[in-house]
Amino acid sequence: MNNVHEEAIKKILSLMENVDEKMKGTFQNMHHGYLTETLVRFFKARDWDVQKAYKMLTDCLQWRIQNDIDNILSKPIIPADLYRAVRDSQLVGLSCYSKEGLPVIALGVGLSTYDKASVNYYVQSHIQMNEYRDRVVLPAATEKYGRHIGTCLKVLDTTGLKLSALNQIKLPTTISTIDDLNYPEKTETYYIVNAPYIFSACWKAVKPLLQERTKRKIQVLQGCGRDELLKVMDYSSLPHFCRKEGSGSSRNSSSNGTIDNCFSLDHTYHRQLYDYIKQEATLIETGRPIKQGSVHVDFPELDPKDAKIAETIESEFQKLADQNGKCNSLNGVKVNGD
Fold it and tell me: What's the pLDDT tens digit per position in 89-108?
């Protein structure tokens, strides 16, 4: 950091002295002892503007208080069959770690249907994975690799992405906005793999709307991305859909009889996460049955720039749908003489 950045951090720390005790408490729970690193994330998200970064931070802390985010890891999604349904339709998991020790998060964006539970359960599950990453996964990686690790890599599998995905675009957009506003700069690089034509068409339209900082983080890889990803992680760390060409987001992939699909509830990561949440719930609800029902989290309003991106995606999907309709109509027309 240069002198300007150091001065900016001093200014925001001075401003933070005036917030109430609740906000100070949740801020401590959020930075986990890495105060400067946490502030730098908010500064990066607001181009090192002190007032904008301070507003973003205090808005985030207020959101955490209003939605009791500090205790969200003690609120399991039960019964287990409901949680399994969430996992089967919101494909995400921890694959392993990169050569530098960064957690590798895999997402099956093309085959996630978000149709087995209410929106609140999907948002609750996503925030729980964020909090588990920040409170358990990243501290464990920091200890293992002997240096502070505060970010992760994400590998997005677009296998199966169809025009019908437009029907579910609102939920992923909401989740993305929650991340942008409350968990900024937690992803080092986004790798897009198994990209079909529909993704390529949308990417061309969306890319110019993204900030340069965001564009630099996104890499669209050829095919399943295996060769490129092996430069930053070992073969054993590759998500299951990157192991071989055409593998896709298989829901039941296995290797040597062990569950190898990090999307599955039977994968080690999800078993440990779910057990952790149930254990935390037991500690809080001692002697009482664990409450059922989803956690209702306030959904933030879309930033105008994010809203523009969402509109562009919808528009591109609609264009492709119209083209597809015309092609289908032409395919049904008989030409004289044929």
Answer: 999 999 999 999 999 999 99
